[in-house]
Amino acid sequence: MPIRIRRPFTAGLLAALLAGAALLLGPVSPAYAHNALRKATPAQDARLTTPPAEITLEFMQKLNPKFTTITLSDAAEQKVATSDPEVTGTKGTITVDAPLANGTYTVAFRVVSTDGHPVQGSYQFTVADPSASASPEASEPVATPSAAPTSAVPTSAAATTASASPVASDSTDGGPGTLALLAGGGVLVLLVAGAVVFMVRRRTAG
Questions:
Q1: Does the predicted model carry a pTM greater than 0.70?
Q2: Residue 34 C-alpha from the chain's centroid
Q3: pLDDT of residue 167
Q4: Do residues 129 and 196 both lie within one domain?
Q5: What is the helix (H) or strand (E) element at residue 18, kind and residue range?
Q6: Does 81 share its domain with 122?
Q7: Residue 19's pLDDT is what?
Q8: What is the distance between the alpha carbons of residues 197 and 48, in angstroms, rounded to a whole number?
Q9: Is 155 contained in some domain?
Q10: Which letter does DSSP use for residue 179 in this model?
Q11: pLDDT at 97
Q12: Domain coverage including residue 11
């Protein structure tokens, strides 16, 4: 008869301990979630017929202006002149100094999450303005008189545009979020171990 009483009591105690541990560990993940890009203008892989005057990135969390970097590069991986990022809440905006020529461009960013972890990534978009060209057309050679005949060297110009393939990367490092999860896991293990020891002692005493 005593054994039938102890088993439900022990099972109830274990269930209560596990439920309490779950409540402690549950809020840890959202509190230490890393920042992430939510929306970009121009969007990733966008093909624009009009060059953008500015680029705006919207993130999941608020940005720190001191640790927010947004850059723009052309297909030759050369930096395009832009303003410093203007940060408002979760948004960061840069202004392009001069109209962009036709071609593929890469937007790269680096921000810091609320837990102090750096997050970085990049993506591409293409400018395809039908009224502009990516490179100047070759001019026809002007004939000049000479005493000796010279051979003509054919010249040609071709405009090349890199394909718009998304390049996205996010890098984060372990830190306070990982430590909090490990601490919570240790608390859970101690609670379960204590419950098992309590159950064994009660059975031995019985």
A1: no
A2: 9
A3: 42
A4: no
A5: helix 2-25
A6: yes
A7: 56
A8: 68
A9: no
A10: H
A11: 96
A12: 1-33+174-206
Answer yes or no: do 44 and 16 share one domain: no
pLDDT of residue 183: 55
Q: What is the CATH number of the domain that holds 39?
A: 2.60.40.1220
- Whether residues 26 and 41 fall in one domain: no
pLDDT digits (tens, 9 = 90+) for 148-206: 444 444 444 443 333 334 445 455 554 445 445 545 555 565 666 666 666 766 666 65
Complete DSSP assignment for 119-171: EEEEEEEEE--TTS-SSPPPPPPPP---SS-----------------------
Q: Are residues 24 and 41 in the same domain?
A: no
Instruction: Please choose, from the candidates 36, 35, 31, 45, the residue with its C-alpha nearest in 3D space to the C-alpha of residue 127.
Output: 45
pLDDT tens-place string over residues 133-149: 654 444 444 455 455 44
- Claim to verify: residue 13 and residue 27 sit in the same structural domain: yes
* Non-local CB neighbours of 91 within 8 Å, separated by 6+ positions: 56, 57, 58, 59, 63
Find residue 88's DSSP bridge partners: 91
Of residues 113 and 58, the one with the higher pLDDT is 58
CB 139 within 8 A of CB 196: no
Peptide linkage before 42 cis (omega within 30 of 0): yes
Q: Are 110 and 64 in contact (CB under 8 A)?
A: no
What secondary structure letter does DSSP report for 23?
H
Say if residues 119 and 111 touch (Cβ distance below 8 Å). yes
Residue 54 contacts by C-beta under 8 Å, 6 or more apart in sequence? 93, 94, 95, 96
Token code pair at residue 33:
């979630």
Whether 9 and 51 share a structural domain: no
> Do 65 and 118 belong together in one domain?
yes
